[in-house]
Amino acid sequence: MDPLYKIIFYYPALEKENKGTEFLYSPLSLAYLSAHTPDYYRKEMYDEYVGEDIAPHSLNADIVAMSPLTSGINRAYQVADILRKRSIVCVVGGAHASAMPEEALEHFDAVIIGEGEQPWKNFLNDFENKRISKTYFGRMDVNLDKLGVPDRKMVHPNYHYPSINTSRGCPYSCSFCYLTVYKNRRYRTIPHETVLQDMEDLRGEQLVVVTDENFIGYSHQDHKDRKDLLKKMIKKDFGFYWGCQTSLNLAEDPELMDLMYESGCRAVFIGFESTNPGDLQEIRKNHNANIDYKQIVEEIHSHKLAVIASCILGLDNQDKNYHKQLIRDLKSMKVDFVRVFLMTSWPGTPLNNRLKKEGRLIEDWDRTRKDIPNIRYKNYTHEEILQARKEVMDSFFTFFNTLKTILRWIFTERSLIKLFIKMSFRNRISEPIRNKRALQFILQKAYTTKTTVNKEAEVMAPSP
Ligand code: B12
Ligand code: SF4
Q1: What stretch(es) of the chain map to CATH 3.40.50.280?
Q2: Using a 6 Å cutoff on CB, does residue 72 contact ligand 1?
Q3: What is the largest CA-CA distance in the chain?
Q4: Phi/psi of residue 315, each to 5°?
Q5: Which CATH class is domain 161-442?
Q6: Which residues of the chain form CATH 3.80.30.20?
Q7: Is 216 in the pocket of ligand 2 (CB under 6 A)?
Q8: Contact 93/115 with Cβ under 8 angstroms?
């Protein structure tokens, strides 16, 4: 059938990060929506995060569907404003739009809140009948039996590694986590046959990133389901290595870890967040409390999986010198890689609500991205927290430490050495860029505030 309409799927980004400096794995939101779009739509995609630039003054389409992160939302608004003047229908979804639908509606014809597939179909149906609504709601607890595979033609080839989803949802409510904007986030698994079909498409890849909230799930039943999936993956022998995000209780299940290794998993990313028990209470991550992190890492290592630790700096409970303790703790835990993020306030989260009441937010979406300060910290100035983060990263990515980790890998068969060297190298280049960007933001802000204050002073000053 000849296409009746044209849709452009678009990831807007303020900062284009394709300088070979990031560990880049692909988003999947628009690929899933594309798979749920009728055949009589012609589809194109643009992804500014990996270097493309959309040309809103000249592109032609009936609908532009955008999936921005908070850091890209101003770019999304800028582009939508131009497109709508040209009578192109603009629709947006994702975390930021779900948290701030009224703000988004100032720039978009329609906002989709929550999980997108079903409301997307409703939106297209309304579009065809020329009666679109302003908001569409997608439940977060729908069964994934009919989800199907994502349309991988709508994933930009510039990403270094493909992502894959095997499940959705997380039942916790950590106060900083953007996921808390979504209600009823039940953990659900994607049917094994669908996952295996999607993996078949990725045969021949070197590394695949599972971007589920938590690959292993939360209950005994979930672990059992994961083991069944892993056994099927082993049988299929896809040939790629893979990594995933997971939780500390992985260490309690040796069979699960062994099956993960056997099916190609080599690294797990874990949100430790902090090595201070009091901090975990502050961020409502009590399920991490009273756990011996060192023992957990040892246990996971003994099953040949590398551990990437994710930590947060800037909690109220952390004093100015906490990062020095963190450096010691990370060294003693012997994690393989670290990511250190700044406490960041995402719209719609419990943390955001608290800090708003306390007057500590700097609501500037362009700087809401985990490596640029966007709140007033209790115990750090912005310069201090950036310096603290730099110290942690620098202490970890030394030549000596990298060599030690590589040797440990050689002797324990965690055979992702080539990738690890690449990531460490990238990290060494990307960290100075991140720091420079963060400092630029702070200085720019200080300059803008200063000039605004000066301008106000000029207006207030009596004329000579
Ligand atoms: C893949 C990924 C990336 C990729 C791709 C980024 C991109 N362009 O989207 C890379 C590695 C490049 C990346 C980078 C960053 N990321 Co990232 N990333 C993810 C990750 C792991 C998976 C996203 C995904 O594909 N999920 C699967 C899809 C199917 O789910 P979904 O996105 O929620 O989409 C569904 C619905 O939301 C909805 N929907 C979404 N968009 C739309 C659009 C329309 C039109 C409709 C109808 C529906 C709809 O329908 C979809 C299907 O149901 C998430 C964590 C997570 N588990 O979600 C973090 C996450 C999205 N990233 C995050 C952040 C902060 C970043 C960085 C800013 C970090 C940094 N400091 O560098 C950067 C910067 C990105 C930029 N400049 O724009 C945050 C976002 C928070 C926020 N409110 O913005 C998340 C949530 C992680 C976290 N918990 O902190 N990231
Ligand atoms: S931080 Fe992790 S455990 Fe906490 S709510 Fe978010 S995804 Fe769930």
Answers
A1: 5-138
A2: yes
A3: 85
A4: -70, 155
A5: alpha beta
A6: 161-442
A7: no
A8: no
Probe residue for ligand 1, chosen from 22, 29, 77, 339 as the CB with the greatest number of ligand atoms within 8 Å: 29
| CA separation for the pair 76, 49 (Å, rounded) | 12
Give the CATH number of domain 5-138. Answer: 3.40.50.280
Q: How far apart are CA 225 and CA 110, in angstroms?
A: 37
> H helices within 2-114, ranges in order?
29-35, 73-85, 95-99, 101-105
Instruction: Give the β-pairing of 167-168 and 188-189.
Output: antiparallel
Q: Could you tell me if the CB of 272 is within 6 A of ligand 1?
A: no
SS3 320: coil
User: What's at 370, amino acid-wise?
Assistant: K
Q: How far is the CA of 430 from the centre of ligand 2 (A)?
A: 26
DSSP-derived 3-state class of residue 169: coil
| In contact, 70 and 366? CB cutoff 8 Å | no
In terms of Cα–Cα distance, which of 70, 66, 58 is closest to 33?
66
pTM value is: 0.91
Distance CA 464, CA 257 (A): 77
Nearest CA residue ID for atom 4, ligand 2: 174
Give the sheet arrangement for strand 41-47, strand by strand. Answer: 41-47, 5-11, 63-66, 89-93, 110-114, 135-138
Query: What is the structure's pLDDT at 445?
Result: 53
Tens digit of each residue's pLDDT (9 = 90 or more) over 12-67: 998 766 554 566 899 999 999 999 999 999 999 999 988 888 999 999 999 999 99
User: Among 303, 326, 333, 462, which residue's Cα sits nearest to residue 389?
Assistant: 326
- Chain-centre distance for alpha carbon 199: 21
